[in-house]
């Protein structure tokens, strides 16, 4: 038998037979729903046969027959009521299980988020793409789609989305482009490390979204619920549908705070902070200033994460402040890294290790934060060292800087655009989707093996704009993304190790070594981070001015 759980109280299955019902009961089921009309196939048992055996086993059986491909709104309502009234758990079946999964999806649409429904059915092996608009519409058949249509639709108004929209318009002034994003505020997230180190004020890292949307680009202030790539459509919350000729997907990633039990309840108090949130970065600085002794823990979750150097940047800037304040000798700094190396590109590690020694920090590799008790100021880590059985340790803290695990947004993970891990599936050179030729992706949400940084998005935006323009003109891709990413590692106030690298850890410095050696801490790199990069972000990258971001061209031999 192929019984597929949808929830704890419902499983669905392909056609069952009467002689399987005893085994179904043995697995704990108390009721059966048949969603297959009698007579669809010659070898199909009738509902009467199923019901007779179910009653003999002390189970309830209900007949809600559905013609294949014709699930009505009323059918879904009937199914939903049955799930409430029948003793559970319930097994529903049809020929393949798809009709049963569809009925459940539509019946739950008014109570659950579309992403939750799509995730549950996808996990059971059922694709609900054909009814996604109805799911978004509360389970009902839409009567007015209210479609809008654009040459290019960009999902996401972060660094990647605004930059690529501006680059597209710079190349194609007549292109009808729309950005879909529900946010009112756009954040310069690379600045939050500096806020947590007392260098920037939080307010300088935020601007209104409306002030940044490129001239001539439409802003659809809404959240995306689902994608219909076969129909060139994006379905919004409320079941509005936006059609496109070409689509760019760049909504960023999801900070999964809820994955660590106890974290959400204690963030922003009890000494628990994170520079990964705008409102918490100032609390980091408050804690650092106020700490004169005790234990300070800095965590790093498993990859991939946004800006892999940020967890240790917080540690270095904090350590530097305590060093300058003369209290470092009284503070026990612990770096808890779920990975096995300090930094993924070995050329930068020696310089970083010198600062680890300066701040007398203890490096704890293969330590992943799994829960936190803010009231009692304890954190529990799972320790998974190679060739050893995993263990758990609990340690006290006076201050803890937490970096949450990070995943693709829910509506991306359950979409046809995602790979098995949930990220948008692109060619790592052209950033074009591997399945859908009129879709591109950039920024943190796509699956190319590069660092997830704003600097990477700055390089990716011209590549996507160039290749999409070529496609509009009927030409093959002309630009190649080499995996460039930059991580300015703030090792002390006034000095930075400027890590710049591409695919495979290849060093890709922007400046000659005699001017700026990125493998060593320099004041020039600090000036770049503090004074030059913010204006480049606001006044160049987000306005389609591609300073030092000219994409590589496809070679003639390719």
UniProtKB/TrEMBL annotation:
GO biological process, one term: sulfide oxidation, using sulfide:quinone oxidoreductase
Beta-lactamase hydrolase-like protein phosphatase-like domain mapped to chain residues: 2-110
Keywords assigned by UniProt, alphabetized: FAD, Flavoprotein, Oxidoreductase, Quinone, Transit peptide
GO MF annotation terms: FAD binding; hydrolase activity; quinone binding; sulfide:quinone oxidoreductase activity
InterPro entries in alphabetical order: BLH_phosphatase-like, FAD/NAD-bd_sf, FAD/NAD-binding_dom, Prot-tyrosine_phosphatase-like, Sulphide_quinone_reductase
Pfam families: BLH_phosphatase, Pyr_redox_2
PANTHER family: SULFIDE:QUINONE OXIDOREDUCTASE (PTHR10632), SULFIDE:QUINONE OXIDOREDUCTASE, MITOCHONDRIAL (PTHR10632:SF2)
Name of this chain's protein: Sulfide:quinone oxidoreductase
């Amino acid at each position: 038998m192929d019984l597929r759980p949808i929830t704890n109280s419902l499983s669905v299955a392909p056609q069952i037979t009467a002689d399987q019902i005893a085994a179904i009961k043995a697995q704990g089921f108390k009721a059966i729903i048949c969603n297959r009309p009698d007579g669809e196939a010659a070898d199909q048992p009738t509902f009467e046969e199923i019901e007779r055996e179910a009653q003999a086993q002390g189970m309830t059986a209900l007949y809600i027959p559905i013609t294949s491909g014709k699930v009505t709104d009323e059918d879904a309502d009937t199914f939903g009521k049955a799930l409430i009234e029948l003793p559970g758990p319930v097994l529903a079946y049809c020929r393949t299980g798809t009709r049963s999964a569809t009925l459940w999806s539509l019946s739950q649409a008014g109570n659950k988020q579309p992403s939750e429904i799509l995730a549950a059915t996808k996990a059971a092996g059922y694709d609900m793409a054909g009814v996604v608009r109805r799911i978004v519409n509360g389970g009902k058949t839409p009567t007015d789609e209210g479609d809008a249509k654009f040459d290019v639709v960009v999902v996401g108004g972060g660094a990647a989305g605004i930059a690529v929209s501006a680059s597209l318009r710079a190349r194609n002034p007549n292109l009808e482009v729309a950005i879909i994003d529900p946010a009112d505020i756009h954040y310069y997230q690379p600045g939050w490390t500096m806020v947590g180190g007392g260098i920037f004020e939080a307010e300088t890292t935020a601007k209104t979204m409306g002030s940044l949307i490129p001239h001539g680009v439409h802003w659809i202030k809404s959240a995306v619920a689902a994608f219909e790539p076969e129909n060139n459509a994006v379905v919004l919350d409320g079941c509005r549908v936006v059609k496109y000729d070409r689509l760019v997907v760049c909504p960023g990633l999801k900070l999964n705070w809820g994955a660590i039990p106890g974290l959400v309840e204690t963030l922003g108090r009890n000494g628990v902070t994170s520079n990964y949130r705008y409102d918490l970065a100032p609390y980091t600085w408050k804690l650092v200033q106020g700490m004169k002794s005790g234990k300070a823990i800095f965590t790093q979750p498993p990859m991939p994460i946004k800006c892999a150097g940020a967890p240790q940047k917080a540690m270095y800037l904090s350590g530097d402040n305590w060093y300058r304040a003369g209290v470092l000798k009284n503070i026990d700094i612990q770096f808890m890294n779920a990975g096995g190396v300090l930094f993924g590109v070995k050329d930068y590690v020696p310089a970083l290790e010198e600062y680890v020694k300066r701040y007398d920090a203890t490096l704890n590799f293969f330590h992943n934060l799994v829960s936190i008790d803010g009231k009692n100021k304890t954190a529990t880590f799972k320790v998974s060292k190679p060739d050893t059985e995993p263990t758990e340790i609990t340690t006290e803290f006076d201050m803890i800087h937490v970096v949450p695990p990070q995943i693709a947004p829910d509506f991306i993970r359950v979409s046809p655009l995602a790979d098995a891990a949930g990220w948008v599936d692109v060619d790592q050179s052209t950033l074009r989707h591997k399945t859908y030729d009129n879709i591109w992706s950039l920024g943190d949400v796509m699956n190319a093996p590069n660092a997830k940084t704003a600097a990477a998005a700055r390089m990716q935006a011209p590549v996507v704009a160039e290749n999409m323009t070529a496609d509009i003109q009927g030409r093959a891709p002309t630009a190649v993304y080499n995996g460039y990413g930059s991580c300015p590692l703030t090792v002390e106030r006034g000095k930075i190790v400027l890590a710049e690298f591409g695919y495979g850890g290849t060093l890709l410095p922007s400046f000659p070594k005699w001017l700026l050696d990125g493998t060593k801490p320099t004041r020039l790199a600090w000036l770049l981070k503090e004074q030059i990069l913010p204006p480049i972000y606001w006044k160049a990258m987000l306005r389609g001015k591609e300073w030092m971001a000219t994409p590589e061209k496809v070679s003639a031999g390719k």
